[in-house]
Amino acid sequence: MAIGALPATCNTPVSSITIQFSEPVTGFNLAALQLRRDGAGAPLTGATLTTANRRTWTLGNLSALTFYDGAHQLVLLRAARAPPTSRQSLAAGADVAWSMDAGSVRGGPGDDTFRIVCHPDDASRVDVFINSDTTPRTRRCCRRAAMERHGGDGDDSLIVDFSRGDPLPADGLIYQGEANRTGNSLAIAGTSGGDNVTVSDGQVTVNGSHPIGYGDAQFFRFELGAGSDNLTIDGETLCINQDDAISGGTSVRSPTAAHST
Questions:
Q1: Which of 140, 160, 147, 136 is CA-nearest to residue 212?
Q2: What is the DSSP code string of 148-178?
Q3: I need a labelling partner for 151 at 20 to 30 A (CA). Which of 128, 209, 217, 232 fits?
Q4: How far is CA 84 from CA 23, 31, 53, in A?
Q5: Distant-in-sequence, close-in-space partners of 132: CB < 8 Å, separation ≥ 6
């Protein structure tokens, strides 16, 4: 048997993988397969396994499972059963491996904090810190900050840190927090002053470019630098909690402003 070959490095999700047996088999199902990311097992939730002749099988609906950057591997865990007349052994152990390099990062099942900041020695690269202020997980330009969903567990935070310069790629960034949560947050931090930040139509823009699209984010934090900054809330609801304050050189314009007590 053989598992269909894939490029060593992919920059788009793998949507399906073909598994080919030399003769029809029975008893082959999703439980016979394991998807691994960075050496850890990843559930094949939502994946499909179909065949028309019991020889060629297609593992499909994988895009949501292979979206995240890292080392991926599909492994045959146990043998399928050949017909009784066959003398061929369909042993376990076959695999296919590839690396995903699309500029995405993922979190775990609990609360995760992601911070994206320019690399200190090379402004063309970006450090991505995951639940750490000391060791970056990756040093490449992150196009998507996607938080992996684990049954809706965990409140995620994304901090876009401008203290070393603009860390956003020209095509922007998409932040997707854990679904069905109430504590996901997006922060713009480390600006030096004289910045224009706009929240509008599901995006945050900094100085007129580099949009940050957000989903499932309930809280925003803007730590703008001292000086003539502008924070514009356009078409969104700005909620100011009882203990919050707006100070410094920042002006806020919002068609809908709510004060929470």
A1: 160
A2: PPSTT---EEEEEE-BTB----TT-EEEE--
A3: 128
A4: 12, 22, 17
A5: none
- Residue with more model confidence, 49 or 214: 49
Distance CA 239, CA 197 (A): 17
CA-CA-CA-CA torsion sign (161, 196, 215, 122): negative
Phi, psi of 135 (to 5 degrees): -125, 110
Enumerate domains of the chain plus CATH numbers.
2-100 (2.60.40.1220), 112-259 (no CATH)
Q: What is the DSSP string of 199-227?
A: EETTEEEETTEEEEEEES--EEEE-PPSS
243 Cβ contact list (under 8 Å, min separation 6): none
CB 203 within 8 A of CB 236: no
The size of the chain, in residues, is 261
